[in-house]
Each structure stands twice: as structure tokens, then as C-alpha cells.
Design goal:
Rossmann fold; globular; four-stranded parallel sheet; alpha/beta
Length: 348
């Protein structure tokens, strides 16, 4: 199972990840039929072909069910990119530790959690380190700035845009008028123009590429909570993180999550490095206020950049994907695994 990019790398897709991807709790119900179809297709293929190993990436509820079927078929499971069970549902971490032969993590504290549960856990580091480094070598889609730049990253999904764009855009327009800012928004692939209503009227320029050079040149970023916050941290971009979801999903999440923060930047830093605005606080007024506080305080900006530097170092050195690949091959080539799967030679 994978998306178009994996297919382009040669993956034979039994199931398409874009058909089952979902964000939130209440939103998952409409995907149940597609999820069951994918689980059934993958399970049938496993029984027919008996693979020598299975690499499961994130997507915990689905993959825990698949891991049970893989274990029944005596197929070694390697879990890469641990789901954020350290934030909620600690019991799920124990299930993953029991069913996976090896767990490969992005953050060092995740490996420690699984080792305490008796799992074989390896910290590989974060592949974003290499992605950002490569991205910074590409040319910027815009000329060198002549004034301070405010960058908007409202999200990569339609639902995120519908909740984040308007308050981001209005706050950015106000700040631009007050502080003579250039405002740029990055549109994720596949998102239509209609989701960025009013951009031209508000003086906001929309670009489709070059996120890392733009982050490196940004004086301030409004960003939807997610991986983009780590990209911003690696580029040293001061940011304000926003997150708004459906009321039902938020209520369920708040009852389960055990962390003080929602953004990965603050979670990795274990302190509030960047401001977070959630749910009803995601308004143009609050974004303008928080943006003003950063833009008018050199001391606060410097402190923020120092915190982002600590986060960047915590993501590990370059080469995470190579280390992860080595950890996968090492786990599959373990003699006990070859005996369990009935193979005698090296994996194909």
C-alpha cells in the first residue's frame, strides 16, 4: 500500500494510500469501507506470496490489525515511523512493541519508550533533515526580498484550508499594512485556486513550490500543525502554529492526549518554543496579536531562533533514510526470521 510517489519508485500497489488517508476521529467513519477493502486485499496477498518482511509506516489503527495477520502468517514486521502513541493511547505502544520485530523511530525519546517495553527499537533520525538540505540547494521561486516576509502554510488538505486560510489571510493582510511585509502563501500540490479566496485582493502572492528557500527567507510563518513545523524549524523560521479540526474530533483528542503541546516543535523541545493557537483561538485577531509580538521584539525572535536550533539538532544528522534501510535489512536477515519464514538465502 502506498501513494503515487512510491508507485513511481516501483511499488506494486495492492492498495492505494490516498484512498484511505484520513485526519481526525469523526472523519474516519466515511473511510471504513475503503479501509476494510485494503486490509482484506493486503492480507490475501500476504497469504499467497509469503513475503520475507513487512515494513509498516505510521497509520497505527490500520497497521495494528494488519500486523496481527502478518504475525499469524509468520511474516516479520518492521515498524517504521512510530505513530505518536507517546502522546495518547499508551496501550497501543505495548501492542506495537509485541507485534513488531523491530521499531525504527524518528526521535530518540521514542526509541527509549519502546525499549522500556522490551522492543528492539532503533533511532534512525528524521528524513526531513535531508529533504530540507536538498530543498535549500534549489533556487527560490521568488527574487531576493526587499522587505520582511510573512509566509503562510495553511495545510495540505482541503479541510485544513477551509479552517485555516481565512484567519491567516486576514491577519497577514493587517500585519502587512502595519509593518510593510511581503506576504506569500505556499499551495500544496492538488489544492485548487478556489480554496485561496481573496488572496490577490489582500495582497497575498500564491506560489506552488520552493517551500524551503521561502522558509529560510521568512521573518515570520503562520503554519498549520504538522510536519511543516519541523521543516520551518530546520530552516530557522520563527512561526506561529495553528490547528483547528471538527469539534467532535477535538473533543475526543483532548480527552486522550496527554501532552501540553500539539506542535511537533514544542513536543521535541519539551518547552514552548513557538506559540500555538487552537480551535476557537484560530482567529485573525489572535494571529495578528501574536504576529505583532514577534515582529516587534528582537529579543523574542532571537530566543525563538535559539529554540528552533535545539529542535533541529534533536532531529539527528543527515542520512536517516539510509540508516532506516539498513535497520530494515538487518532485521529481515536475522537468522531467526529466515527460519520463521522458511527461507535460507538472503532476502530478495
Amino acid at each position: 500500500m502506498g501513494g503515487p510517489r512510491l508507485a513511481a519508485e516501483g511499488l506494486l500497489r495492492v492498495a492505494r494510500s490516498e484512498e484511505v488517508a484520513v485526519v481526525g476521529f469523526s472523519e474516519v467513519f466515511e473511510k471504513v469501507p475503503a479501509l476494510w477493502r485494503a486490509l482484506r486485499s493486503l492480507s490475501n496477498r500476504v497469504r499467497r506470496e509469503r513475503p520475507e518482511g513487512a515494513v509498516l509506516i505510521d497509520f497505527p489503527d490500520f497497521h495494528v490489525m494488519l500486523a496481527k495477520r502478518l504475525r499469524r502468517a509468520r511474516v516479520p514486521v518492521i515498524y517504521y515511523i512510530s505513530p505518536q502513541v507517546w502522546a495518547w493511547r499508551a496501550g497501543r505502544a505495548r501492542v506495537i512493541a509485541e507485534r513488531a520485530r523491530r521499531i525504527i523511530t524518528l526521535f530518540p525519546f521514542e526509541a527509549d519508550i519502546y525499549r522500556k517495553l522490551g522492543a528492539d527499537a532503533v533511532w534512525a533520525g528524521h528524513p526531513l533533515v535531508d529533504d530540507v538540505r536538498e530543498g535549500l540547494e534549489r533556487p527560490s521561486p521568488l527574487p531576493a526580498k526587499s522587505r520582511r516576509r510573512l509566509l503562510l502554510l495553511p495545510g495540505s488538505r482541503t479541510a485544513e484550508l477551509s479552517r485555516h486560510w481565512r484567519p491567516m489571510a486576514e491577519a497577514a493582510s493587517r500585519l502587512a499594512a502595519r509593518f510593510d511585509l511581503e506576504v506569500v502563501a505556499v499551495r500544496a500540490a492538488g489544492l485548487p485556486d478556489k480554496l485561496f479566496r481573496g488572496a490577490s485582493e489582500l495582497g497575498i502572492r500564491i506560489v506552488d513550490s520552493g517551500i524551503h528557500p521561502l522558509l529560510a527567507s521568512a521573518d515570520l510563518v503562520f503554519v498549520a500543525s504538522g510536519t511543516a513545523t519541523l521543516e520551518a524549524a530546520l530552516c530557522g523560521a520563527p512561526m506561529i502554529v495553528v490547528y483547528r479540526t471538527s469539534p467532535a474530533s477535538y473533543a475526543i483528542g483532548r480527552s486522550l492526549v496527554r501532552l501540553r503541546w500539539i506542535s511537533l516543535v514544542n513536543i521535541v523541545a519539551e518547552e514552548e518554543v513557538v506559540p500555538e493557537l487552537l480551535q476557537g483561538d484560530v482567529t485573525a485577531d489572535r494571529l495578528e496579536k501574536e504576529g505583532e509580538a514577534l515582529l516587534t521584539s528582537p529579543e523574542r525572535l532571537q530566543k525563538t531562533r535559539e529554540g528552533l536550533g535545539r529542535v533541529a539538532r534533536a532531529l539527528g544528522p543527515p542520512g536517516a533514510s539510509e540508516r532506516a534501510a539498513e535497520a530494515v535489512l538487518e532485521a529481515v536477515q536475522t537468522p531467526s526470521h529466515r527460519a520463521a519464514t522458511g527461507t535460507t538465502g538472503p532476502p530478495s
